[in-house]
Amino acid sequence: MYVLQDNCIKYYFQNNIAVNVSGPGNSKASPMMPQAHPGAHHACRKDINMSKKAETDKPARPVTVKDHMALNTANTKKKHTAVNDALKFPTGEQFEKDLTEILESDCEAQGETVVIALIDFDNFFHINTDFGVEAGDKVLIDTGHYIKDRLPAGATVYRMGGDEFGLIFKGDSEREEIFLFLNELKNGFNVKTPDGADQTITIGMATAFLDASRYAELVRKADSALYRAKISGRNRVAMAKEEKMVPKTSHYTQDQLQRLNKLSKQEGIGEAILLREALDMLLKKYDI
């Protein structure tokens, strides 16, 4: 018996061609359709070959953490978009390098305040849908200029990707002062869509050495604050807060927990922090 591929069946029915499904000995045509087109098998074979080629041409999916980091770096280098070219802001890769360097410096001993903020444009998707990509790019460019023109001394803005910007504050300002500044930045946001409608931004912030001392954990705290502000109605600023941990020990095998304990001792990092980092990477992989 012949097994027909889906794309073959699609080809035959789209072109009103009879399909012989009983085997090579049955040449009877369907009463509803004419005899098979002589080029049908060739076209079907071609479709299947092209499909197989497309599968083999696909890049290998990243498997390890190192693979994901390499892929992110490669994608960052490709991001010569109209928005990046116009703004000339450092990207998310540079944000990670700069923040890691700051966290590993002696700024805490020097009494400097280090705060990060993630700024997200609210409901941005509809702008590309309603007005087109070029209009969306212009809105992001205007947003970038709006943020940069209002930054205090010691603050740097980064294009994190999509409709998100990142800020690093480093200096003598207190955390509360930076919060008030971000609230003013949010309240004064004056970028509009082509139809003149007002738009809003939402901001999440976290303070180094108070909320977290490592890059991944600090960014996670700021991202959690941003998420909390989003689900609370958008158009607001949220600070990182102390989180309640929920035991999940029963979700892991004994072997996994032993290896986790070994990694924790090897790196000098708490097991809970390592688990949160791993879960964050998983959620980002599936865009959650």
Structure overview:
This protein is α+β, with helices and mostly antiparallel strands and 288 residues long. The chain folds into three domains: 6-57, no CATH class; 65-243, 2-Layer Sandwich (Alpha-Beta Plaits), CATH 3.30.70; 247-288, no CATH class. The chain is 49% helix and 12% strand. The chain has eleven helices and five strands; from the N terminus they run αααααβααββαβαβαα. It has helices spanning 6-14, 40-57, 65-78, 82-87, 92-103, 125-131, 133-149, 175-187, 215-231, 254-267, 271-285; strands at residues 113-121, 155-161, 164-171, 201-207, 237-239. A five-stranded mixed beta sheet has the order 2-3-1-4-5, sandwiched between helices. The longest helix has 18 residues, at 40-57. Mean pLDDT is 79; it is low at 1-36 and 51-58.
Average pLDDT, all residues: 79
What top-tier CATH class of the largest domain fits best?
Answer: Alpha Beta
What is the strand arrangement across the widest sheet? Answer: 2-3-1-4-5
Share of helix, binned: 40-55%
Instruction: Determine the CATH superfamily of the largest domain.
Output: Reverse transcriptase/Diguanylate cyclase domain
Second-tier CATH architecture of the largest domain: 2-Layer Sandwich
Radius of gyration: 27 Å
Main beta sheet, described?
5 strands, mixed
> Overall 3D geometry?
globular
Q: Low-confidence stretches at least 5 residues in length (pLDDT < 50)?
A: 1-36, 51-58
Number of strands: 5
- Total domain modules: 3
Query: Beta fraction of the residues?
Result: 5-15%
Helix and strand string, N-terminal first? Answer: HHHHHEHHEEHEHEHH
Task: Note the gap between the termini.
Answer: 44 Å
Count of DSSP H/I helices: 11
Look up the CATH topology of the largest domain. Answer: Alpha-Beta Plaits
Q: What structural category do the secondary elements indicate?
A: alpha+beta
